[in-house]
Amino acid sequence: MNEIKLAIIGPGKIAHKFAADVPLVKGVVLFAVASRNLDKAKAFAAEHKATHYYDNYEAVAANSEVDLVYIATPNSFHFEHSMMCLEAGKAVICEKPFALNSQQVLKMTNKAQEKGVFFMEALWTRFIPATQKVIELIAQGAIGEIKGVKADFGFTAPVDLDSRLYNKALGGGSLLDIGIYPIYLSYLLLGVPESIHATATLSPTGVDTDCKMVFEYSNAISNLECSFTQTTPTEALILGSKGMIKLHSRFHHCKGLTVITEGQPPVSIKLDYIGYGYSYELAHVVDCLHQDTLESPMVSHTDSINLMSLLDTVRNIIEVKFDQDVL
């Protein structure tokens, strides 16, 4: 495969960071960007040296030169824009959450298989050095058997009921926006829980502003929380039978962790990353495309379906419903 031509749909805050990291990855070039606003697309293209820019997303799907599309539009549009690009035969990486519910994720992954194109949820936290090190340490038995996970993610957001965070039509709420990170850490380390308990505070718009969850496993328990109304440590503790690993703030893209074992002094490990940290997932995608694989072995379709199902279960418990949910 020649140099992979990447297009970005939805040039928001995350897309700017992602685009800034593209030059750190060999074999891929930012080719195009699309926005509903032409001036915004033009400015983004100029800043990140994309050669093409459009005032509509359909133009990306229609451009035969585009190999790979990164979708960073609001949550409620992930399904629509992924399906459009997959239908056009484009490889796609779509920001988390993959969609609004597991029914949508199933349709998306089935479409990718039908079209024979690569498709992955952009869970960048899976690829950063700290996460890789955690998996290595656990495999080595550094803290023994995992007995639990404690993870939080909270920040004080302005109370703007029209904003993306509070807008139900855009898939708002703390759970899908930031709660996905504590949930994903628990899933990555312990898999699908046997039972889930959850409580939440809802905004006048009907989305959650705060959510606390307990995931129960046969031999472990995870205590997870997310919030738009309070600033929390945003750290994670992985508790084992012989010690624990602390992922420093913010744990989902931390630059260091501490291993604490009984009878031993704490061991601090620095794990910095280059750029904003998005180059690792993009480099992985480039490798997958060169190997002609349809899904990532690190973030598989099954992983994304399971993760979305966990979010569905929590939403059902706290009674947050979207119009897109299948009744």
Describe this protein with a few key phrases:
single chain, alpha/beta, 8-stranded mixed beta sheet, 9 helices, 33% helix, 25% strand, globular
Describe this structure in words.
There is one protein chain. With 327 residues, this protein is of the alpha/beta class. It has 9 helices and 14 strands. It has helices at 13-21, 38-48, 58-62, 78-87, 102-115, 129-139, 174-190, 279-290, 301-318, and strands at residues 4-9, 28-34, 52-54, 68-71, 91-95, 119-122, 146-154, 195-202, 208-216, 221-227, 236-240, 243-247, 256-261, 267-270. An 8-stranded mixed beta sheet has the order 8-9-10-7-11-12-13-14, with helices on one face. Strands 3-2-1-4-5-6 form a 6-stranded parallel beta sheet, sandwiched between helices. A hairpin with an 8-residue loop joins strand 12 (243-247) and strand 13. Helix 4 runs parallel beside helix 5. The longest helix has 18 residues, at 301-318. The chain starts with a strand and ends in a 9-residue tail after the last helix. The relative contact order is 0.16.
